[in-house]
Design a protein that fits this description.
single chain, 414 residues, alpha+beta, Adenine-n6-DNA-methyltransferase TaqI, Chain A, domain 2, 3 domains, 5-stranded mixed sheet, 12 helices
Length: 414
């Protein structure tokens, strides 16, 4: 439906690979975008990153500007090669590393945000994958990227499509800022009361060897039931593709509350190992691989794989306290799970014996009363973001392919 052009026909200048430079010892110099930032941030708005020492000439040659597209030149997995990101905010100078390709488009011909969405859509991703060379590591060449045929709607249409999709992302980012503020407030109150021990009435409390009287050391198993997950047979296709979340460690990285997972089980898959089913409000903790990542289930029933141990609190008022108490055990989990190999492996037996300093029940309940409304708001904002992403992702390929006309879409009010 749309005209096709070689991608390089839209360039303002030739594409460029980044600079090879080690981090400065004292973290001084200029910021550098690495592969970590390219994959971690959906879109770049001047995030925190490491710094390197550069010359003025290098800053000019390898500097980034608003609207620059960044592509992963190589990756350990094929799906990562060609990953696209965009610079939306830049406080110069910022440079980029050698594993990244910079593409600077002529804005009179092309809207960079439109092509960011194009390359993150299934259509653009499929086009990029045709360029991937798999040797020791998967990768793309800037010369081949330049020759890639891309769709070319009129600039006015590019602008309107980019506006529609960007409005969803802006709403998501506003919600993320709200979530961050709520999380910081809840965590800070936890630290103030249970770490610094400046809880209500602390001045009148009696301390014994630095611990308030009545507080006691308890093991995680004292707070509820512990379950270790299990993976249903992947040979049975009917076990997968339903609506029951099947939680793995990467799903815990995304948010405090687990609304989305990469894989889902059917009722049949869930019933194949009913004893592993978790109710809403369970605390999931990664104990193999990357240890100590914590998340809370939101579905009425969920399951996890064997890399995760989960706690079902026996009292709902314990949830908020336990979430932060267990989150603070990350280093302990990594230490206790050390096996001499490169990754953590903490057994259920060791996990359930991890120790937590438990405050008086009335103080825990008071904390829950103050923080649970914040947790509820975080859930609401995360759920909104899930819905916004789903709508955006359904619209994206249809708008970009021309199957859905812009006039049929009502642009969201910011």
């Amino acid at each position: 439906m749309f005209e096709l052009k070689k991608f390089e026909e839209l360039y303002l200048e030739p594409s460029k690979n980044g600079i090879s430079r080690s981090s400065s010892i004292n973290n001084i110099g200029v910021k550098i975008v690495n592969m970590g930032e390219l994959f971690w941030y959906p879109r770049m708005k001047n995030p925190e990153m490491r710094k390197v020492i550069t010359t003025d000439k290098e800053n000019k040659s390898f500097g980034l500007k608003v609207g620059d597209l960044l592509f992963a030149r190589r990756s350990l997995v094929a799906e990562g090669a060609g990953k696209c990101n965009i610079m939306l905010e830049v406080v110069p100078p910022i440079v980029f590393e050698s594993s990244i390709i910079r593409v600077r488009l002529d804005k009179s011909l092309a809207n960079p945000l439109f092509y960011y969405y194009y390359f993150t859509s299934d259509i653009g991703f499929a086009a990029i994958q045709t360029l991937v060379n798999e040797v020791a590591a998967s990768g793309i060449r800037s010369s081949e990227l330049a020759k890639l045929k891309v769709i070319y709607p009129k600039v006015t249409l590019q602008n309107r499509i980019a506006e529609i999709l960007n409005n969803y992302d802006e709403l998501i980012e506003v919600n993320n800022q709200r979530i961050k503020l709520l999380e910081e407030t809840a965590r800070e109150l936890y630290k103030e009361w249970f770490v610094r021990m400046r809880f209500p009435g602390f001045k009148e409390a009696k301390f014994i060897k630095g611990v308030p009287e009545g507080w006691e050391i308890k093991e995680i198993k004292d707070f509820g039931k512990i379950f270790t997950g299990k993976t249903p047979s992947t040979k049975v296709m009917e076990y997968y593709g339903g609506e029951i979340p099947f939680i793995k460690t990467p799903d815990l990285h995304k948010n405090q509350f687990i609304f989305e997972t990469e894989d889902y089980l059917t009722e049949r898959g869930n019933n194949s190992q009913k004893r592993s089913t978790l109710p809403k409000g369970s605390i999931c903790v990664s104990c193999i691989g990357t240890g100590g990542i914590v998340g809370i289930t939101t579905a009425e029933k969920s399951q996890t794989n064997q890399q995760i141990n989960s706690l079902i609190p026996k009292n709902k008022k314990l949830l908020e306290f336990l979430f932060y108490a267990i989150s603070d055990l990350k280093e302990t989990i990594e230490l206790f799970g050390y096996t001499g190999a490169t990754m953590t492996n903490l057994s259920k037996g060791k996990f359930e014996k991890l120790k937590i300093l438990f405050a008086l029940p009335e103080l825990i309940e008071l904390y829950s009363n103050k923080v649970s409304p914040m947790f509820e708001q975080i859930q609401i904002f995360q759920q909104q973001n899930t819905q916004l992403r789903q709508i955006r992702d359904r619209l994206m390929p249809r708008l970009i392919s021309g199957k859905l006309e812009v006039k049929d879409i009502e642009v969201l009010n910011k």
